[in-house]
RNA sequence: AUACGUUA
């Protein structure tokens, strides 16, 4: 049964919604647990079939847990249906750090960065890496690149290790600030200081740093050094 | 690797 649930979600990721549904249907009713149901409606949601996801969630699922509530709220939030997302978050029996990150995300979507910051600051119980990344990314993309860098420092001070997502936001912040040298320094120190090898996305960010500063030749040179790896 | 939140 566990393996069927895995199949449902991985088929959904590949966009093979019908196959995911078939695996679910083949599962005996007694073997369908809350994870199977959540994987099923999430499959609809990530394939832009929000209505059907909602039907499964509200009408078909026998039981819900924190993860399924979060997943439904996230589906609405992703689709830009913030009112529905909010409603789910208000109705659900409890919240965890994922729910709070969703609320955070809705606030950012609405341009309420101060409110988002308050939500972030109040996450005292379990401010995890995703939450940090969300806050740093929100600043980096909303004209507060300096705040993003300050928060990155805080993150360090609090002993939270950054990941590849963090790095993209930091490079984006340097880009917006036009800080070419700092950006370059960060880019080369990523693998040494944090064990994070730059991937395509980081190269793209770095090209942006150089491009915005008008260093087009350097940008081209960087692209030429990009180590291709087929997948 | 059983389902949820973060980065053009």
Instruction: Average the pLDDT over all residues and give the rounded result.
Output: 96
Summarize the helix and strand pattern as letters.
Answer: HHHHHHHHHHHHHH
Beta-strand residue fraction: under 5%
Structural class: mainly alpha
Q: If helices are DSSP runs of H or I spanning 4 or more residues, what is the number of helices?
A: 14
Helix content: over 70%
**Beta strand count:** 0
Describe the sheet with the most strands: none
Gyration radius, to the nearest Å?
A: 21 Å
Shape: globular
Poorly predicted residue ranges:
none
Distance between the termini: 30 Å
What this model shows, in words?
- The structure is a single chain.
- With 231 residues, the chain is mainly alpha-helical.
- Helices cover 73% and strands 0% of the residues.
- The chain has 14 helices and no strands.
- It has helices at residues 2-13, 17-26, 34-46, 50-60, 66-78, 82-91, 97-109, 113-122, 129-141, 145-157, 164-177, 180-194, 200-212, 216-224.
- Helix 1 (2-13) packs antiparallel against helix 2 (17-26) and helix 12 runs antiparallel to helix 13.
- The longest helix is centred in the C-terminal third of the chain and has 15 residues, at 180-194.
- The chain is globular and about 60 Å long.
- It starts with a helix and ends in a 7-residue tail after the last helix.
- It binds one RNA strand of 8 nucleotides through helix 1, helix 3, helix 5, helix 7 and helix 9.
């Amino acid at each position: 049964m566990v393996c069927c649930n895995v199949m449902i979600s991985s088929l959904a990721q590949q966009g093979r919604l019908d196959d995911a549904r078939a695996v679910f249907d083949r599962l005996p009713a007694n073997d369908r647990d809350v994870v199977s149901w959540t994987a099923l409606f999430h499959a609809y949601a990530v394939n832009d079939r929000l209505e059907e996801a909602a039907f499964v969630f509200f009408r078909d699922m026998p039981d819900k847990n924190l993860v399924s509530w979060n997943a439904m709220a996230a589906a609405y939030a992703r689709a830009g249906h913030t009112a529905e997302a909010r409603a789910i978050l208000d109705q659900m029996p409890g919240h965890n750090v994922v729910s709070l990150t969703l609320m955070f995300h809705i606030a950012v979507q609405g341009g309420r960065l101060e409110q988002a910051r308050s939500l972030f600051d109040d996450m005292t119980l379990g401010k995890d890496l995703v939450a940090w990344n969300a806050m740093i990314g929100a600043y980096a993309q909303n004209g507060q690149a300096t705040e993003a860098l300050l928060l990155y420092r805080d993150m360090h001070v609090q002993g939270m290790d950054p990941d590849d997502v963090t790095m993209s936001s930091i490079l984006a912040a340097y880009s917006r600030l036009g800080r070419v040298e700092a950006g370059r320094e960060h880019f080369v120190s990523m693998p040494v200081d944090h064990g994070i090898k730059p991937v395509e996305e980081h190269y793209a960010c770095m090209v942006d740093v150089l491009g915005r500063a008008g260093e087009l030749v350097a940008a081209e040179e960087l692209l030429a050094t990009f180590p291709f790896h087929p997948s």
